[in-house]
Amino acid sequence: MNILVIGGTNFIGPPVIRHLINMGHEVTVFHRGKTQAELPEQVNHLLGDRRDLNDFKNKFEQLGLEVVLDMFAYTQDDAQKLMKTFKGIAQNVVAISSIDVYRVYDVLWGKESDIIPLPLTEDSPLRSSLYPFREIPYRPLNAPADYEKILVERVVMSDPELPGTIVRLPMVYGVNDPLRRLFPYLQRMKEQRPIIVLEESIAN
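Above: the chain sequence. Below: its structure as tokens.
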């Protein structure tokens, strides 16, 4: 299968790309060239900015794409450009979403008080308010103020001529995690401390 990966050189992308190559797929990565990643030599590279996707439409047409995997569609505008660019070029679009679309995310932060049945499923209720990071001064991974995966999902799943698939990831951790989520715990384990102290905000 011929797959284009948008992004793919940071945290989650390289393991995904290596897995696709090991499965025998042909992979092209569209990225800015600012992040060096250890990718298989079979991977093709196309340098550019996702904000200029439409400018690369002719090059995308030459690739004979079957699937486009977008690792970094953060906003409604990102998704609209994605679908407009690849309509008539690709057979399917896969967009990476987040567990933060669920209403339980706002319950966790005290913005809603509903009791949400667990475990979560694809049919679990979504947040009733949009733009979860708009009001906070520090946004994870420098996400834009109009970050909203709910709107990304709506756009990707709304075009009958270009089928979409959404993958809602939970919190992801591991090698090269830019947020270093496990570091405080691993550090205390390495130092053989008798207890692991949680930050007050997490403990609450």
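Residues 76-86 form the longest helix (11 residues).
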